[in-house]
Each structure stands twice: as C-alpha cells, then as structure tokens.
Amino acid sequence: MDRKAEEKRKQRHSLTLLEQVKRMKESTQIIDVVLVAEGEKFPCHKVVLAAFSAYFRAMFTCGLAECTQREVVLHDISAESVSVILHYVYSAELRLTSHNVQTVALAAFFMQMEEVCNMCQKYMLDHMDASNCVGIYYFANHIGAEDLCDQARKYMYQHFAEVSLQEEILEIEFQQLLTLIKSDDLNISREESILDLVIRWVKHSRESRLEHLVELLKQVRLVLVSPSFLVEARKRNTIILCNSECNDMFEEALKTIQLSSHPSLSLRYGMETTDLLLCIGNNSLGIRSRHGSYADASFCYAPATRKTYFISSPKYGEGLGCVCTGVVTEKNDIIVAGEASAVKMSRQRTRNIEIYRYHQRGNHFWHSLCSTQLRELYALGTAHNDLYVIGGQMKEKNQYLVTNCVEKYSMEQGTWRSTAPLPVPLACHVVVTVKDKLYVLGGWTPQMDLPDEEPDRLSNRTFRYDPGQDKWMERAPMKFSKYRFSSAVVNGEIYVLGKRKQIFNR
Question: CB–CB of 35/82 below 8 Å?
Fold first, then answer.
C-alpha cells in the first residue's frame, strides 16, 4: 500500500471513529459523566474529555472525588461555552462568534485546552477592529495571553483616534484609562481627542467617576489643544465649569498658549509625521548584509533624518515572485502587485496579478490582499481606499493586445468591478493621485490609423479620472512623450521623472 493510500485509510478511520463517538453522545449511549454549567446538563464521555483536556484527565485519573461522581459541576463557566467546546470535541468544529469567543476562551483556559485557546486567540486577532480591540487587550492581559495582548495593544495604540470614539473604551476602569492617556505612543494627530475622551468617560458614569476628573485632566496636554476648543469644552460641560481646580487648569493652559507658540510638552506619536522613500521588490542576486538576502528585506529611507530602515520583503517565502508596481493609500497602507512565486504558481491553474498589502497589526508582514486577471505593463492606482488596475497588455487568442480596461477593487467590501475604460489603450504608463483623482500619464498605445507593421506610438497625453463621476477627462499634455518612467506628487504638483524633468500644474 502506497503512502497516500495509507494516509487516506487512516483519515477515514479517524473520521469513522469521530462520527461513531458523536452519535453515541447524541443518543446518550455509554454516557459515564454529566457536566453541569449554569444548571444546564451536558452528558458526555470521560475518555473523550480526558483526551482533549489536561484538566479532566487529571480529574478522572488522579483519584479525585469526581472520579466516582456521575455529575461534575463547572463553576463560573457559561453553559454556552461548554456547549461550544463539547461540539468541537465531538465534531472538530469550533463555532465561534464575536459574542461568545471570550467566554469560550475562558472556559478552554480553565479546562486546559490549549488548542481551543489558540483558536480563540486567532479568531480575536483576525476579527480585531477599533470597536473591540480595547476589550481584547484587557481580556488577553487577564488570562496571560502575551502575544494576543501585545498585538491588541499595538492595534489599539496605532488606531487610537478611532478607538477613542468607540463605546467600548468608556467601560474601562480609571487606572486603565489613566495609563492609556499618559502614553506618548498614541497615534492621534490632535490632543483634542484625549480631552474629549476624558470628558465622555466621566459623563458616562458621572456619580462614580467625577472624583477622577482632575487627575485625568492632569494627563491631558492642554497646551496642545486649540484655544477655541478649550473655551468651548469648558462652556459646554458643567463638570468643568463647576470645578475650580479644572477651571484653573484651563486658564493656565490658555495663558501658556498665548505667551508661547512652541509648547514645551512632548508630542504624541501621531502628532509627528516622517516621510519615507520605499524601495520594494529586490531580486535575490544582490549582495548579502546583516539583514540577510536582499530578497528578504526591503528598504525605507527617511530623507529628514537620513536613516535607513528595513521591512520584510513581499518576495519572502511564498510571496511574490516579482514586484511590478505599488502604491501607498491615504491610510498609509503599502500595497504592491506582481506575479506569484514559483512555489505558489505551481499550485495554481492560471496566472494572475497577485496583490499584497503590508500588514501593520502586531508583527509586521505581507499578506495576500486579492488577485485579478493577468496582464502586463499595467499601472496601479488608489483613491478613496480603492485600488485601480489600469490598462496594460493582455494575451488574447495567443496575441498580445494593449487594453484600455480599468478594474477597481474595494478594500472595504473585498470586491472587484469594472469602471469607465481609458479613452485610449495604454501600456507602460504611470498613475498618480492628486486630491482623490487619478492622473494617467504617458505610456505607449498601438497605432489605430496605420498598418499593423507600423511601430507603436509613444504618448504624451494626460487623463484625469473622477471616481465620483466614473469619468475620464483629458488634461494638458506633457511636453515630451514618455514611457517606462516614474512620477510623484509634491504639494499638489505632478513631477515626471525620466530623461527630462518637467512639472505639470493641475
């Protein structure tokens, strides 16, 4: 019997055993223990529980009183979580939802079921957003899940401007909020967000929290708040107006702001920005460095500090085999497009454009965002958090044809759809974004009015796309025709980088 046949036989054997044990549970056959949680009873088998849980294995084999008891009462564990865990034990299906995942994780932690705990943590990580990251952080900290706790904290700090507006953060305890707003690492651009959060937190449970107002306000960097916001906040909130110490703090901040244009307090993380130049998509033939092969690391250069940073490369592991183009979205997501690696391509039936995004949650890494029909020499653009694959060369009936088709990918909905095509077919062009509109420049386009043997024509034309109207409009042409060139936007002006430098004023 060959190896694959043996593996299939063992798999069938395991599935048969699991199915038979599940049927015995459902028909209450050979039941030798009943778990009780919140008054609800769950008939099951000791041997099955012991196989999956170190807690039950110790209970049923170490001479404890529960060895001879028919019923085992589980204190402080919800009936729903017991039901979910037993269903997993007998069927290999863990039915997690955003409402039950923490109670299931607690029950699994109590029962010493490491695999279920890990699955719960992965679920929470995969479904983490601004509305639940605070709860996940303090839950993970409570049960000692260090990796989940660390990644939830990073997510919470990175997205604090949005997190501070959620209802969940109003439920945390005083010391937890105090520790949060002390931090320099909060990614917020305006101190007004912190002041607003403190006021909302106190008003959420005014009677019990009013005593903490002064101590919390001491952690708000009031001199970084705009004077108009300070005046308005005091005017609109009686909790500040009625407290002489709070009034004094506001008055002192207003005087300090008036006397000095340069606050002495340190800024928070999100109040300072650093421009980076990204160099992504190296081949594996470069020299090695302390960061390993150039295929494993991509470079980021900060012109202001003249420092070089390294991030993982999308070519690492089973990522992209090559990187053709990339963009940075308005949310500072780094996105690149290219073809799959040889390992990944060997498992695919068709070649596609593979699009990867740099994952900023927890440990930074690249992950596959989406894919679309293969084309070459295309351009990648972004506007309103949507991606656009524009033009390029496609193979149809063993012939390469330059196309004018444009495909849009919604990163919020995870869907593709076609948009208005380019006015002309283009390849080797560039695309940039200015004020949420796409500008396509240069490239080459097939001769439409000359015989096939005529060479392709270079373009100096400029087209602007308005996503709101789904419409292209021609703008002023470049002075010179160009293709295979680079472009960038600085202060609302488009710079074309190639053999000749020129500026196009929008």
Answer: yes
The pLDDT of 423-438, averaged and rounded, is: 93
Mean pLDDT of 185-193: 90
**Do residue 100 and residue 188 come from a single domain?**
no
C-alpha distances out from residue 351 to 88, 98, 348, Å: 38, 36, 7
CATH code assigned at 73: 3.30.710.10
Those residues with Cβ within 8 angstroms of residue 439's Cβ, 6 or more apart along the chain or in another chain = 431, 432, 433, 462, 463, 464, 465, 475, 494, 506
Q: DSSP secondary structure string, 23-43?
A: HHHHTTTT--EEEEETTEEEE
For residues 337 and 314, the answer to whether their CB atoms sit within 8 Å is no
Specify the pairing of strand 71-73 against strand 33-37: parallel
Q: How many residues does the chain have?
A: 506
Count Cα atoms within 13 angstroms, Cβ side, for 151. 19
User: Mean pLDDT throughout 424-446?
Assistant: 92
Is residue 436's pLDDT more than 80? yes
Q: What is the 3-state secondary structure (H, E, C) of 167-234?
A: CHHHHCCHHHHHHHHHCCCCCCCCCHHHHHHHHHHHHHCHHHHHHHHHHHHCCCCHHHCCHHHHHHHH
Tokens representing 36 are 């009780």
Average pLDDT of the chain to the nearest whole number: 85
- Residue 450 belongs to domain with CATH number: 2.120.10.80
What is the spatial distance between Cα 226 and Cα 102, in angstroms, rounded to a whole number? Answer: 40
DSSP assignment string, 3-20 = HHHHHHHHHHHHHHHHHH
Half-sphere CA count of 40, side-chain side, radius 13 A: 11
Query: Would the pTM count as exceeding 0.90?
Result: no
